[in-house]
Amino acid sequence: MPSSRRMILGHVVTDLSSKMNRTKKLGANIMETPLNRCLNTFDITLLGVGHMVGAGIYVLTGTVAKEIAGPGIVLSFLLAGVTSLLAALCYAEFGTRIPKAGSAYVYTYISVGEFWAFVIGWNIILEHMIGAASVARAWSGYVDSLMGFAISNATVSTVGEMHEQLLGRYPDFLAFAVCLVYSCLLGVGVKGSAIFNSLFTIINLGVMILVICAGFYYAHTENWTVGKGFLPFGFTGVIAGAATCFYAFVGFDSIATSSEEAQNPTVSIPIATIVSMLVVTVGYILVSAALTLMVPYWTISTSAALPEAFSSIGLNWAKYVVSIGALCGMTTTLFGSLFSLPRCMYAMASDGLLFSFLGSINQKTQVPLINVAISGISSAIIALVFDLQKLVEFMSIGTLLAYTIVSASVIILRYRPPAPEETVVPRVGSVTTDDSSQSGTELASPSSDIVELVTAGRLKPGFLWLSPLIGNCEPGGAVSGAVFIFTCFSTALCIQLQLSSHELRVGVWWTVLLASFFIFCLVGCLLVIMAHQQNTVGLRFKVPFVPLIPALSIFFNVELMVHLQALTWVRFIVWMALGLLVYFLYGIHHSKESDSITSYSILMTSSEAGKGKWGSMHSTGPVPVLSPSEEKPPPTTKAPKDVSTDDKTPIVYEEEVTQ
């Protein structure tokens, strides 16, 4: 090993040992939270399953099968499930890295900066608020259909109809009340509401198994072959159906949101994410297959698909069992949205980006009660007046954007050289007061890990021929640029596939040439990313095949966004304009990002901890490898100070940053 490399490794080892006690205390601070750490892996898994298995299976299935995809809804759920699973793997890795509430908001904050974190957090608020309202509206519609539409008829005769395109046909007072009632239940405490959610989720899963078994027993294969066959709306209908079915999978990020209330987040979050995604994806595919095999797709009821399907084949008893499961499923989905929304608001307010009173926790219940109240009232008002279908479309765009940035962030952090403190923070897996469990032997990285830290973000030896092109970039900088370019060309290719699909099928030369150019650029970006060394030190769970899986997640998310309606984009732009007003008039002036030590600062590189308000995708990596003529003697090492909770000294000393 060259003398310069030995010197660099020596510096890193010395720095790690000198800051061991400081990092141990800071790592403990990350696990400290005013929220109540009381949820185990089983609780969190059922939270994710319950959030996903609700209105999607009992309401959305009928609409997509009858009007969008036909029996091809099976492929729509498969495509939406695979797309969500790719994003879920990225969430699982971040849950291992960062055991904090806030989900994609926190992940973006750590990786690409405050401004983009606010954009994602603002969209997550929209996602959960509309998610709660849409499920409450579906819950109300389901009860109304079981009662022979007595509720809607009474409401229309009393207050009349609303004749606006975006609004519902009538004000839904039952949906309004449901949001308020469930918000009150969430205010009693996390553990009690989690038990309530687990019970309803288990009932819902039992009903799903009954539907699958009965549906396949009474299946008629000719329902997939008569008429226009399995794909009556073509493969375009399958993709459009997947964009709508994606709504059914958005609940898995409630798992990541519960990180700060998990007993052991670095273990529970990855397991709960993957298990819940697999269970829900398989369940949705089997239920949709059973439904379309049991009755012809054109006879399916859009308001109560499964109960009406069982009634049509003479199984009236199954209609009532399915109705119970539907109400339980939509209850847990509503619970998941109302659980996640206050915690995202809490995370953003704790960073100064939203109003400070939203960052308070009730000392008795250890729940952000003010946020719960605001979330319940806001969701109730939206459910009162807006139409269900418009809410579902509006919700998907913010969710897809959040998933896209989380997937990009996984790539960026994998190739970013960390500060020495980051090598040990991920090893803080559970709250413990036993100092022996944090011994220097366990915390110190082996030599292979230190080599990985030094080389992270730099070109691999086999790709040094790229040095004239990207050799002058900071470690990790070229990867960040490549991820941005990959996202832009993915958007361009998806738009072309949407607008010029017919020309591509018939082989018009300019469309083929343009698509080939986009694909060539995408492959080139992946090559640039793979040419760099990764940093996986301390990760208990890693997304496999990076950067391929996160890149596929980015592409699929963009493809689904392109298939959303133009009016959905207009509403999204209006929502973002409102959010930017909040950020520039309040958040940017009260941001805590520049504080020397925050709850995130030990998870961020030294350059991020003090960066400007706009955030950055650049980082200052470990000590650069110098040529023999450029080598300098190591600086005088300052003795580490004892760290207290109000210590404001920087984590990385100034001379280490400027070296």
UniProtKB/TrEMBL annotation:
Q: Which parts of the chain span the membrane according to its record?
A: 41-61, 73-92, 104-125, 173-192, 199-218, 230-250, 271-300, 320-341, 369-388, 394-413, 478-501, 507-531, 543-562, 568-586
Location(s), subcellular = Membrane
Keyword Nucleotide-binding present in the record's keywords: the answer is no
The GO terms describing molecular function are: amino acid transmembrane transporter activity
Q: Which residues form the Cationic amino acid transporter C-terminal domain?
A: 541-591
Q: Where is the composition biased (Basic and acidic residues)?
A: 629-649
The annotated region (Disordered) lies at 610-659
Q: How does it sit in the membrane?
A: Multi-pass membrane protein
Q: Does the record carry Metal-binding as a key word?
A: no
Q: Which GO terms describe its cellular component?
A: plasma membrane
Which keywords, in A-to-Z order, does the entry hold? Membrane, Transmembrane, Transmembrane helix, Transport
Name of the protein in question? Cationic amino acid transporter 4
Which lineage ranks, top first, belong to the organism behind this chain?
Eukaryota, Metazoa, Ecdysozoa, Arthropoda, Hexapoda
